[in-house]
């Protein structure tokens, strides 16, 4: 689901899926918005899409994490077809990517995610949501489910990168605690981005309730990946241990 928090006003619970953040999902902004044309010219938007699609393709060819997630999805009966399941679109600048459960589609925000590294991070995050949706009867309207899949996405990707950078001479237990805090904060931001109708306290309570179970569920990556380590490659090499091809 959405990757960053927003401070929007409450909206109708039933209708709100966070898609106001993804105007192209409503078929509204197929053309460049006025401000994009004013700032960059319409050609820039087209260039962004091409470069975004190139980055996506590149990740599927070269990123061990993306390839691992691809294998895991395939082994679970949810093989990804790049043209069908991944879309580069112009989004609200508050988000960098998202997963659309209605269409089982991943959105990469071409106007925000401009580097290959960023596209890799978003792809892996959203592919974890896709994997959870494939593996379980997942209802993104259920706060417990939403919190769980956001905890897993933050745990397996985003926070693991960060914790490795801040390790230094910190004690093992401090790192563990920092990592768990990072996952909670990141998950909170993601939940609130998709569900601005939910109060922060309510979201936090749900995150706390499902935290341990979802934090300890490391499938399909099997480890919390550290930055600049061999973990990514190792996880990909060990995929057959989990039955992924
Ligand atoms: Zn998410």
From TrEMBL:
Using the UniProt record, name the top-level EC class of this enzyme in a single word.
hydrolase
Q: Which GO biological process entries does UniProt record here? A: mitochondrial protein processing; mitochondrial proton-transporting ATP synthase complex assembly
Q: What is this protein called?
A: Mitochondrial inner membrane protease ATP23
Which InterPro entries does the annotation name? Answer: Peptidase_M76_ATP23
- Which protein family is named in the record? Belongs to the peptidase M76 family.
Give the matching Pfam families.
Answer: Peptidase_M76
Q: What is the lineage of its organism?
A: Eukaryota, Metazoa, Ecdysozoa, Arthropoda, Crustacea
Gene Ontology cellular component terms for the protein in this record: mitochondrion
- EC number(s) for this protein? 3.4.24.-
* Molecular function in Gene Ontology: metal ion binding; metalloendopeptidase activity
Q: PANTHER family under this entry?
A: MITOCHONDRIAL INNER MEMBRANE PROTEASE, MITOCHONDRIAL INNER MEMBRANE PROTEASE ATP23 HOMOLOG
Keywords tagged on the record: Hydrolase, Metal-binding, Metalloprotease, Protease
Q: Which gene encodes it?
A: EOG090X0CKN
């Amino acid at each position: 689901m959405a990757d960053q928090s927003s401070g929007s006003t409450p909206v109708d619970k039933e209708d709100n899926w966070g898609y106001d953040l993804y105007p192209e999902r409503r078929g509204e902004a197929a053309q460049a918005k006025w401000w994009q044309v004013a700032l960059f010219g319409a050609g820039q938007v087209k260039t962004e899409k091409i470069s975004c699609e190139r980055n996506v393709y590149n990740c599927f060819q070269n990123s061990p994490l993306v390839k691992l997630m691809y294998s895991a999805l395939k082994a679970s009966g949810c093989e990804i077809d790049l043209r069908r399941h991944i879309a580069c679109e112009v989004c609200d600048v508050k988000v960098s990517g998202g997963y659309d459960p209605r269409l089982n589609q991943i959105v990469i925000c071409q106007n925000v995610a401009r580097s290959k590294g960023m596209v890799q991070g978003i792809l892996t995050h959203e592919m974890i949501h896709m994997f959870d949706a494939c593996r379980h009867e997942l209802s993104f309207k259920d706060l417990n489910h939403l919190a769980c899949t956001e905890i897993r996405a933050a745990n397996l990707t985003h926070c693991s990168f960060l914790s490795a950078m801040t390790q230094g001479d910190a004690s093992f237990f401090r790192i563990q605690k920092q990592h768990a805090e990072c996952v909670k904060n990141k998950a909170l931001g993601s939940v609130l981005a998709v569900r601005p109708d939910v109060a922060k306290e309510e979201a936090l309570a749900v995150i706390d309730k499902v935290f341990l179970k979802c934090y300890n569920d490391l499938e399909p990556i099997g480890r919390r990946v550290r930055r600049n380590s061999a973990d990514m490659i190792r996880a990909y090499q060990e995929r057959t241990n989990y039955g992924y091809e």
